[in-house]
Amino acid sequence: MIITVRLDDHQIFRNITERTFKVEVFPVNGSPTFTLPGNLVEVKENSGVSIVKNFATQIDDGDPEINQKLQFITTVDRTDGGV
């Protein structure tokens, strides 16, 4: 992005001064992203804690400078088998 600042003191001589500078904005700590598998994950009723391997792939914490700890928290929205 190029920014130009112009100063005008409204005098007759040498009344306008102008400066131009470049600003680069780098993304910082964007939203995390991930990919879910295309098929449904089946978990048996009353099975307790379940570990689903490769549940999410291509996980990116959103920050290019540091590694952040991510945690998936899941909830059950429906139990009637509907989609």
Structural features, described:
The protein is an all-beta fold and 83 residues long. The chain has no helices and four strands. The protein has a two-stranded antiparallel ribbon. A two-stranded antiparallel sheet has the order 3-4.
Helix percent reads under 10%
Structural class call reads mainly beta
Q: How far is it from the N-terminal to the C-terminal residue, by CA?
A: 46 Å
What's the rounded overall pLDDT mean? 81
Which radius of gyration do the C-alpha atoms yield? 27 Å
Q: Which series of helices and strands comes N to C?
A: EEEE
| Biggest sheet, spatial arrangement of strands | 1-2
Shape, per Cα inertia axes: rod-shaped
Low-confidence region ranges: none
The percentage of residues in β strands lies in: 25-35%
Please sum up the structure shown.
It contains no helices and four strands. The chain is mainly beta and 83 residues long.
Comma- or semicolon-separated keywords:
single chain; 83 residues; mainly beta; two-stranded antiparallel ribbon; two-stranded antiparallel sheet; rod-shaped
Write the layout of secondary structure elements.
Layout: E1 2-8, E2 16-22, E3 33-35, E4 57-60
